Structure to design on (500 residues):
């Protein structure tokens, strides 16, 4: 699009400019990313603090899994247990497992993801995760009260997602 | 300054006579002596401005040394706790700013004229940590005074606020949490407080969190953070730019953000508390070590040695006297 604009004669440059503006609006990644300011942390660790080298983030939320690019439409969401993937500019991909928390995408393209618990996927011991899943299943079948059942369900869902993320 | 009998030290009749008529003998002591003269018990000596004996000064020095030992060990304990609190503060800072960022950007205005106010203060259980608790107490008192026509409720964390204000301001207290600050705060502590505030049923229009923000080992800052109710958030105009929101999402989001903000504030407070106590104990220890009396007592001993060796002459008595005065000034006896 940019090369096309440069070929437009001088008289039409005004129109060309509007075209270029429109192009920026419609192809956020092609027209040079605005750059998102990405914050991701849990109470125990801050993984990203207003980082600008992030291209895309895939987040599991209760409103569905969303992929956040720079200039994403502002939104709020509630984190769901699952795998969170961060794609950095230099093609490194970092994978995390999160339990619950909040996702905020603001108008100025700043993104805040606050997880109650989060850790890197490679730090998880698959065997422990699987035994945790079994334990959660037992807990659910043994649950007597409603509160216990809900607690066991949360644990079960979390462990299921961890095991799924590891596959 | 307390009156005590001049015993043992001044056996030189000239000096005793001098003291009895000295113009700096305080009037109340004179009148006390006059009164007691008419009483049943006749005092064995006239009361003069308290001059400490060598023994008293030694005792005083010993107690200062003991206090120094205590402050020294309190400083060590605080230093260890501070190191941990500071380490834990690092990840919680972005967490707190991240949680507060949304409210900054949405820019929800609080109308202070509305009738129902909620103040959440985060202090500590123990004192000796500078002015952080008294700052909070002062603020709460003034807030009540300045907003006399409003309904105000306090949620206080840490015993100090309750101890200071419960007698006079009991009707304002909604919830108090003790046992805060001894152990490092955890996210579940914050979640518990957030849940209690939400479930309290108090529908506040204006909310504020007050905590001491950690700046450096020697400084902290009392800082307010707005606390928004679910209504004020969901009624905010600028919320319209946010996509795909429903009431359930906003509610869960709001609850979680409140816990996150509280968590960050708790961590800041923990860090300020321990650093302030460390600094206070450090200077107390230094002060105890810097008593001018330590040197004075040495010269006093040398004077005594001199006295033992030679006959008491006028010169040594003057020296003795000046050292005693020095010591008295040092200890404000």
């Amino acid at each position: 699009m940019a090369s096309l604009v440069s070929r437009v004669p001088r008289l039409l440059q005004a129109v060309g400019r509007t075209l270029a503006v429109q192009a920026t609006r419609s192809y956020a990644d092609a027209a040079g990313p605005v750059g998102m300011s990405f914050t991701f942390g849990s109470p125990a660790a801050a993984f990203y603090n207003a980082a600008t080298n992030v291209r895309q983030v895939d987040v599991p939320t209760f409103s569905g899994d969303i992929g956040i690019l720079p200039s994403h439409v502002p939104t709020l969401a509630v984190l769901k247990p699952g795998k969170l993937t961060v794609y950095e500019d230099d093609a490194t991909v970092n994978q995390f497992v999160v339990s619950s928390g909040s996702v905020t995408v603001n108008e100025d393209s700043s993104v805040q993801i606050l997880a109650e618990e989060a850790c890197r996927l490679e730090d998880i011991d698959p065997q422990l995760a699987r035994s945790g899943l079994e334990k959660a299943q037992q807990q659910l079948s043994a649950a007597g009260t409603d509160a216990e059942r809900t607690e066991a369900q949360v644990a079960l869902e979390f462990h299921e997602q961890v095991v799924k993320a590891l596959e | 300054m307390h009156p005590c009998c001049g015993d043992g030290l001044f056996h030189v009749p000239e000096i005793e006579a001098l003291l009895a008529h000295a113009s700096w003998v305080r009037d109340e002591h004179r009148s006390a002596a006059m009164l007691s003269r008419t009483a049943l018990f006749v005092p064995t000596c006239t009361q003069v401005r308290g001059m400490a004996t060598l023994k008293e000064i030694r005792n005083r020095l010993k107690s200062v040394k003991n206090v120094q030992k205590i402050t020294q060990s309190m400083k060590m304990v605080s230093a260890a706790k501070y190191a941990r609190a500071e380490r834990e503060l690092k990840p919680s800072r972005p967490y707190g700013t991240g949680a507060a960022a949304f409210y900054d950007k949405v820019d929800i205005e609080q109308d202070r004229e509305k009738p129902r106010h909620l103040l959440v203060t985060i202090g500590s259980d123990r004192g000796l940590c500078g002015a952080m608790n008294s700052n909070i107490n002062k603020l709460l008192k003034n807030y009540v005074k300045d907003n006399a026509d409003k309904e105000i409720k306090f949620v206080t964390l840490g015993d100090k606020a309750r101890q200071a204000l419960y007698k006079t301001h009991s009707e304002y207290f909604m919830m108090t949490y003790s046992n805060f600050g001894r152990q490092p705060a955890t996210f579940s502590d914050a979640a518990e407080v957030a849940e209690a505030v939400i479930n309290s049923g108090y529908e506040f229009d204006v909310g504020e969190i007050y905590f001491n923000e950690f700046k450096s080992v020697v400084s902290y800052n009392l800082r307010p953070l707005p606390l928004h109710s679910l209504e004020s958030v969901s009624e905010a105009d600028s919320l319209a730019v946010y996509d795909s929101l429903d009431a359930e999402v906003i509610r869960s989001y709001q609850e979680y953000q409140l816990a996150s903000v509280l968590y960050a504030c708790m961590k800041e407070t923990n860090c300020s508390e321990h650093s302030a106590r460390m600094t206070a104990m450090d200077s107390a220890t230094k002060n105890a070590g810097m008593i001018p009396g330590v040197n004075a007592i040495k010269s006093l001993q040398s004077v005594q040695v001199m006295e033992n060796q030679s006959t008491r002459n006028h010169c040594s008595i003057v020296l003795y006297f000046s050292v005693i005065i020095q010591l008295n000034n040092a200890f404000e006896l």
User: Anything to note?
Assistant: Helices of chain A lie at 2-7, 13-26, 126-142, 146-166. Residues 1-33 of chain A have pLDDT under 50 and may be disordered. The interface with chain B takes residues 39, 41-46, 49-50, 62-63, 73-78, 100-102, 104, 106-108, 110, 112-114, 116 of chain A (CB under 8 Å). The first helix of chain A runs from residue 2 to 7.
